[in-house]
Amino acid sequence: MLLAEGLRHRFGAVRALDDISFAVQPGQTLAVFGPNGAGKTTLLKVLAGLIQPQRGRAQVDGGRRAIGWIGHQPQLYAQLTIRENLRFWASLYDIPESEFALRKDDLLLRLGLQDHEHRRVSELSRGLVQRAAIARALIHDPRVLLLDEPFTGLDRMSAEELRELLSEEAAEGRAAVLVTHNVEEGAELATHIAFMRAGRFVHLAPRAGRGPAQVGEDYRNAIA
Amino acid sequence: MRSPRLLRHAWAVASKDLLVEFRSRTAILSAAVFVVLVLVVFNFGRDPTAVSNVDLAPSILWVTFTFAAILALNRAFQLELENQSLDGLLLAPIERSSIYLGKLIANLVFVGTIEVIGVPLLALFFNVPVLPYLVPLIALIALATVGFVAVGTLFSAMTVRTRFAELLLPVLLLPFMIPPLSWAVLATGRLLAGRPLSEIVGWLNMLAVYDIVFVTLAIFLFPATVNE
Question: Which of B20, B89, B90 sits opposite A79 (nearest CB)?
Answer without folding.
Answer: B20
